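USER:
Working in pairs, take the chain set out below, taking as long as you need, and write a paragraph about the fold.
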Amino acid sequence: MDPFLVKAIQLILSLSFLIVLHELGHFVPAKLFKTRVEKFFLFFDVKFALFKKKIGDTVYGIGWLPLGGYVKISGMIDESMDKEQMAEPPKEWEFRSKPAWQRLIIMLGGVTVNLVLGFLIYMMIMFVWGKVYIGPDQMPEGFAVVDSFKEYGFEDGDKILKVNGKEFENSLDINKHLFMRDVRTITVIHENGEEETITIPEEIGVKMFEQGVMQPFVPINYPVLDTVVENMAAAKAGLKKGDSIISLNNTEIGYWHEIAPISTENKQKEIEVVYKRNGEILSTTVEPDEEGKLGIAPVTGIEIKRKTFGFTESISKGFDYGYWTLRDYVYQFKYVFTKKGASQLGGFGAIGGLFPDTWNWAGFWHTTALLSIILAFMNILPIPALDGGHVMFLLYEMVTGRKPNDKFMEIAQMVGFFILIALVLYANGNDIYRWLFE
């Protein structure tokens, strides 16, 4: 199956799953507090719905616009902007008639479900698939190091032994730790067998971001093809498993990590490939896709290890993984407010790109858990029209004893709605721009 189609199916399936459970997080406490829910929709039903059915007081349906979902709760100023209902005297079954603490629980329900769901999925992943890792003993060639990090004392062929004086289990996590966590020292063993503890400058993550060096350490592999993905660029050009890449556009390729920069710089442009097959030197042209990918993976001497966990241990390991995922996402969110970070915002294309090229349940659930935690964090931001905006006004009411008036809430809701639409358009516009011009 075409990789784009595989990603699209995974994206729709994942978002549908997360949206329905998020809205259930509002729906269930609303019903518990005897609040009427008029609509429960997956996706938005602007003008018409693909499907709808009324059961009791609630119309359940599927809209045609896949930008989210919603529950319409009686007596609440939300995206429906139902001014006629709000102009009538409050009814006992309406949201506005309920105590503030009940309204707060209803509004926090969706975020709570997404947050808990993300942690539960990680626990399930630990129990079913365990955790993979690659230690220094499983990386016979070590890392290739970018020039800016060689200034600190790192060398090509280095293997990571410790971070901040503690054993570092998964060597491939080093780039993430440098960017988002407090890394003060890294102990390496150089190619000559000498160990050295290298001091890392403060704010190294900021320096990496400003310099565009997000992968300072890349595993060393030789440019021999092990996997050629069907229907992707390399397969269409006739490359096969076992081929050894000699050069790309007359640039000699000695190691695998030298391929990606050239293919990324030549998205949807022809690249001349010289390669060796069964001792014969051949050439062809290959055209990377819109993401700069060729659809190839190397023969690697890297040995992937897997740890498995029992039921009880998988709970603690999954919780730990979820905590650090949330913490890392919140930490890197500050970069969104920089000029460079804003330009890198992505929409549905970027989200779809997180999923595997081929169907893989472990990869699907990993990405779904990440998206669930991201949705929880984004929804709790104090922006009107988001759950966090409603929570902000409810907390104001609970502290002061005064409700914001309906006119103010209507204006705030409209402003928040337009902010969200602008962000959606901007993020997806970035996706389109990168697809066309990068």
User: Anything to note?
Assistant: The mean pLDDT is 90. The first strand starts at residue 37 and ends at 55. The CA atoms of residues 3 and 116 lie 30 Å apart.
